[in-house]
Amino acid sequence: MLHSTKGIVFHSVKYSETSVIVKIYTELFGIQSYLIKGIRSARSKIKPALFQPMTLLDLVVYHKEKQSLQHVKEIHLAHPYLEIPFDIRKSSVVLFINELVYKTVREEEANPDLFEFLWNSCVQLDATRETVSSFHLTFAFRFCHYLGIFPMANYSAQLPYFNLREGFFQASIPDHQHYLSPENSRLFNSMLEACDHVQEGLVPPETRDTLLETILLYYRLHLPGFMGLQSHHILHDVMA
Questions:
Q1: Fewer CB within 10 Å, N side or C side of the chain?
Q2: Residue 141 sits in a domain of what CATH number?
Q3: Distance in angstroms (rounded) separating the CA atoms of residues 118 and 54
Q4: What's this model's pTM, rounded to 2 decimal places?
Q5: What is the pLDDT of residues 196-216, one digit of tens each?
Q6: What is the distance between the alpha carbons of residues 23 and 132, in angstroms, rounded to a whole number?
Q7: How many other CB atoms sit within 10 Å of the CB of residue 150?
Q8: Over the stretch 142-189, which tens digit does the pLDDT of each residue have?
Q9: Torsion angle of alpha carbons 66, 67, 70, 73, nearest 10°?
Q10: Alpha-carbon distance 21 to 35, whole Å?
Q11: Which of the listed residues 77, 92, 118 is the one where a domain comes to its end?
């Protein structure tokens, strides 16, 4: 049966001399793998550029429940990026977002709120005229909402230690090493508060790196199988 759906490209891999398998996060069906035949041939009408990470697509697809490989009838670019391909900072942020969502999202079912968040984040990143040096950090914090692991925002002067394992602030040092000092807990809480805003102000580089390492550790502690990222090292150099 044919369905029209939006999709966000997560990953593609060569399948044969002329074909690829593309993992796409769809609005209607969650993550699906699509076999795209003939794309690597000279006569293909589908351009490989459509399957760059986080490309936003309009699709007409054949969908069969419990089938590991689905098929596509039509593919069109839904939102062409005007700046991301030509701005090294924005393209580096996209690579970070792509790696983070690819390693954490496993849903083979519709999640309209998560899909809208990912789609709008990409559109916003491409269009913003503000600094993007902390965009990836805000994204990582906000993304926790959609993964069901958002920390408890209970910070106060009486609760100055953030317990990374439990996900809340507490009065004293816990009996394990995964906690933040009062100063870093305050910074962590400032990012939790900034999640309510579309774009937070500039975060100093040393603070930004500390917060990013902290939130990625939080992901590792709360998401089974999450082993960390590589792309944030590139961000460190690009945003310096």
A1: N
A2: 1.20.1440.120
A3: 9
A4: 0.92
A5: 654 445 577 778 889 999 999
A6: 27
A7: 16
A8: 999 999 999 999 999 999 999 999 999 999 999 999 999 999 999 999
A9: -80
A10: 5
A11: 77
